Write the structure tokens for this entry.
Amino acid sequence: MRLSSQTQSLTRFSLPSFDMTSGSKSLMWFRKGLRIHDNPALEYAAKNSTHVYPVFVIDPHYMKPDPTAFSPGSKLAGLNRIRFLLESLVDLDYNLKKLGSRLLVLHGEPGNVLIRCLKEWDIKRLCFEYDTELYYQALDAKVQSYALESGIEIFSPVSHTLFNPAEIIQKNGGKPPMNCLSFSKIAGDPHWLSSSLSTTLSMIPPVGDVGNFEVSEVPTVKQLGYEDIQEEEPPIFKGGESEALRRLRESIKDKEWVAKFEKPNTDPSAFLKPATTMLSPYLKFGCLSSRYFYQCIKEIEKEFKNHTSPPVSLLGQLFWRDFFYTAGFGTPNFDRMRGNKICRQIPWNNDDELLAAWRDARTGFPWIDAIMVQLRKWGWIHHLARHSVACFLTRGDLFIHWEKGRDVFERLLVDSDWAINNGNWLWLSCSSFFYQYHRIYSPVTFGKKYDPTGAYIRHFLPVLKDMPMEYIYEPWTAPLIIQTKANCIIGKDYPKPVISHETASKECKGKMAAAYELNKEKNGMVSDEDLQNLRTRVEDQSQVTGSRRLKQKLI
DNA sequence: CCGTCAGTTGGACCT
DNA sequence: CAGGTCCAACTGACG
């Protein structure tokens, strides 16, 4: 199958005519997009080249063990995700070998390594998937500038997302759409919808001479310097395209389930038979093409007259992904509060002990703690469980800066995705997109709504198995003997909640209302001094200034 | 007469 | 579910 010409027109660079006579070496640079199916960059590299060098560069900064981190892993990534990435690379190598090629694993700073490759291997054409993420924007600019001045052709198609974020922003008058509905209206149907995506490649030209480059196999976790960690249970995700496609087939087997899917009705506490597809880690690394996933769902929806639709349907989930990618691409300082125009400026607390309690699953709320236990164990939690713990941290009882919570997620989640993670933290901390700060999603509310039997909590904290319901949702009422038992088994202090919901709610309301005023006044851009003033003003409860409307209501 | 600005209103938004 | 916030569209005073 051929990709449509439209897909290829997505490249940001003009394509010089190709000289077949001199022999042509292409370099396929893998970063995300760790797959063979629907991989326009790889397909383009394979076309008319005499040799293709499929390269992945392992950045020690990302992969090297960091013993000072709060969980096993590197400075930037938890071990779960590192392992997932390595497995994905092994699978990619395997799939490339079936097509007569192989994966060349190199080590070092990716930009420098790439430029050395282009030079030493006399590469004429560089292919890689376009990436909207800040990190890759900077990295790619460096590599591209070398390639351009050396006359190397660059092919960099958008294939990680359904739509091209830049195009969406342009269609929307230069700004990313700020809600899901307007996003889908502007996006419309993806242009490749009716064309057939390339799902198979018959062969890839052989790898050329690698000279005196040190090319390695995909390293094991152990070779990277990680101790063999005794796992009670095997990791729940196995990385790689093969596993991704297997899971995709598995989860869309029940066609009615696909057609009737409604995200808000899925149960975050379902763990034996998960309530969602759990394909997010595969989409994150591009082991699974979101466009191929889209087409599969679309096919099934055709068979049902009244299937669900975005934003709650399964397709809707892919729209949310693109929505956040677009917002992240079009918003300067998207991953920070300061200097971020769409982010409400709030004088967050800076209590490292409270943050650590949340991060280490010892808040005293079993629902919250059970979720955090799972996050550390599996590296994955249900979307609604993410809501619970994010709302808890930023608004419920702790009121800690969303950037801190974001950092913990970014490290621990196998599917941690820069745009989606930051977008959701902005959302749930009421800093952007959504602003109903008064609606405190307390662990009590969430526990009751989503886990009426307490099964989820009991599964992850087995000590609670025989505990009466009220002790699960209100642990501070538990008799000392049960508390002690829980402490012994979990090995942590199981404290009383720090602040009652009522107090937290009031405090939250005061801060958010003050932040609203400040944001209006300063048009979203505030100085450190402004924040400091706001903080002192808010902390002095007697002088809390509510919003104008709030004041009017009081009068 | 018209353009500007400040203030009001009502509908849409909500993973 | 309900309701705080946002954003168009509107209103009206002013020069």
Q: What stands out?
A: Chain A is about 45% helix and 5% strand. Residues 1-22, 542-555 of chain A have pLDDT under 50 and may be disordered. The beta strands of chain A are 25-30, 51-58, 104-107, 125-128, 153-155. The radius of gyration of chain A is 25 Å.
